[in-house]
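Duplicate of earlier report; HD superfamily phosphohydrolase input re-posted below.
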Amino acid sequence: MEYQEKLLPREKVFRDPVLNYIYVQHQVILDLINTKEFQRLRRIKQLGPASYTFHGAEHSRFTHSLGVYEITRRICDGFLRNYPSKVSGDGLWDDSQRLVALCAALLHDIGHGAYSHTFEHIFGTNHEAITQEIITSEKTEVNQVLSKISPSFPKEVASVIDHTYPNQQVVQMISSQCDADRMDYLLRDAYNTGANYGNFDLTRILRVMRPYEGGICFEINGMHAVEDYIISRLQMYMQVYFHPVSRSMEVILSHLLQRAKELASQLDKNDRLTPHLLMPFFKNDFTIDDYLKLDDGVLNTYFINWIDSDDKILSDLADRFINRKPLKSVEYNNETESLIPTMQKWIQEAGFETTYYTAVNNSFDLPYDAYDPNKKHHATQIELRRNDGTMIELSKISQLVSAVTGKHLGDERFFFPKEMLSKDSDIDLFEPVYQEFQKHIKNDELIK
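Output:
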């Protein structure tokens, strides 16, 4: 039996709190899970600093990646059972595509770094590009496992990640507006944060999902399950992903890494405060091996050491991040945005360097996007299949989805030190500054 076709003598299962059982049937999937690059994902939190807000959010990229694999496996099973291809080009499911779909699903996040999105912003890395490099580089264990299928197989898997794989059914399983990735992270994040907003009927959605020539569509009688999924995603962004405290901790983390980057020449000495594993990134000269050595725990260890730094800003920001001392924030809009420089001036007068202790942070999400030929980039819209076999786009028939289609929902916030809200006039030298500052804050909003 060729490696490609090799099934485990007995399928292996992972117990999962969200999907119950995750079934591994192919030797290649088990071998990929056991690579060092995939095991690294155990040490990277799925939601980064959000665990400072939702204390249960300790789940990892590893658990999410297994979940995306399992949902993709279930999609493949459903397609094979109900919509198997009879002749080439009939638009139904060709099960020879299963293995590339399963491998791409499992590996879709393997390039995420420590505190990934914040790290990317500071050091200019790109987790999708690094994912493809891990898959295609001959130096990685992942590549060596995939190459056993065929010499071209790693590039095929990587092409699913960058959306150039010719079979759109496979691409849309992993990346579309209703895909295995989004479905798993919504359910998993809802479970671990304790926020029920993200729950939806996964079983029903998988039941009404079907392949067609253009990719993946949904039976029209399952429209309400898809609606529920769209609204669940909207609620998770507004209530969990955009939570002001989580964003505040991301601001602190970003400023902490920025300060360390600026102090890199001073940190480049051989003592316990030297972040040896970060130095290649400070110097913008890193390899894939350097990248794979980093995880959340490595960064946290450096942050704990930096609390003892002689640099007061680095020390204070490290303390605020490690010991959860978030910045405060208020919403602002077009009318009050002009106040921000004045607010920053008062913060500076109170002794805080505004570069490191203030920020403006915009968080917006597009709950659903229909195709617009005038847009340069557009998402894969959700198609519903009517009884006569014709297609109709979701927002054209769903009033609920139509109400949020194309609308960016979220807010703009101004972040500042909690000390600026001090009320203790007996002991604080800066009380007059605090009073002027506080006159412009009411009901969590910046006011004139």
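The longest strand covers residues 7-16.

Merging into the original ticket.
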